[in-house]
UniProtKB/TrEMBL annotation:
Name the UniProt record assigns to this protein: PH domain-containing protein
Source organism superkingdom: Bacteria
Species: Neobacillus pocheonensis
YokE-like PH domain segment(s): 20-94
Pfam families: bPH_3, SHOCT
Domain SHOCT: 157-182
Length: 185
C-alpha cells in the first residue's frame, strides 16, 4: 500500500494545506522527517527538522515535472523529482539529497520499491496530462462562420478554465491563452 501514516507534525502540515485534494500516495522518508505525497493535482515533498534544512512544504505541479527516479547507493537511497531547468546529478546522500526541496531521503534501501511505484504513478499522471490535445481554431469570413468561430473561442476558454481549475495549467498560462483567444474575437 502506498499510503502510510506520517510523523505527527507532517500529518498536521498536510491537514492544514490539503483541503479539496485526493491523496493517492503518502510515503515517509528518513526518520519520519520527510515525506512524499501525490494528490490528484500535485506532488508534495514535506520536510521538517534541522537535518533536512528546516521545515518546508514544497509543491510541484505535474505539468512542471520532467522525471521521477529513485537512486540507490552503497549507504542508502533517495527519491528525486526532475524539474524543468534542473540538472539531475548524483547527490551526496547525507549532505545534499536531504536538504533539496525536490528529494526525499529513504529510511533504508528496502523502501526503494515503494518509491519506485510512486515514480510510476507520477510518470503515468504526467503522460495522461500530455494527452490533452490543443484546440485548433480556423478563421472564416461569413457571418455564420464568424458566430461559429466565436462559439469555438468561448468553448475553448471554458475548457482552459476547467484545466486551470484542475491545476493542469498555471494561472499565467491560463491568462496568456485566454487573452490571446479574446483578441481573436
Amino acid at each position: 500500500m502506498l499510503v502510510e501514516k506520517l510523523h505527527k507534525k507532517l500529518e498536521q502540515m498536510l491537514e492544514e494545506n490539503l483541503k479539496d485534494e485526493t491523496i493517492h500516495i503518502k510515503l515517509a522518508g528518513i526518520k519520519g522527517k520527510e515525506a512524499l505525497i501525490c494528490t490528484d493535482r500535485r506532488v508534495l515533498i514535506i520536510k521538517t527538522g534541522y537535518y533536512t534544512g528546516g521545515t518546508g512544504f514544497n509543491q510541484f505541479l505535474y505539468s512542471k515535472i520532467t522525471s521521477a527516479d529513485v537512486k540507490v547507493g552503497f549507504l542508502g537511497a533517495y527519491f528525486e523529482l526532475g524539474l524543468g531547468g534542473n540538472q539531475n546529478r548524483p547527490l551526496n546522500l547525507y549532505t545534499e539529497a536531504s536538504k533539496l526541496p525536490n528529494c526525499v531521503t529513504l529510511q533504508d534501501k528496502k523502501d526503494a520499491q515503494k518509491f519506485r511505484d510512486a515514480c510510476n504513478f507520477i510518470l503515468e499522471h504526467i503522460e495522461k496530462q500530455s494527452m490533452v490535445q490543443p484546440v485548433v481554431i480556423q478563421t472564416s469570413n461569413t457571418s455564420t462562420e464568424k458566430e461559429d468561430k466565436k462559439e469555438d473561442i468561448i468553448g475553448t476558454i471554458e475548457r482552459l478554465a476547467k484545466l486551470y481549475e484542475q491545476n493542469f495549467l498555471t494561472e499565467e498560462e491560463f491568462k496568456t491563452k485566454k487573452a490571446d483567444l479574446l483578441n481573436r474575437l
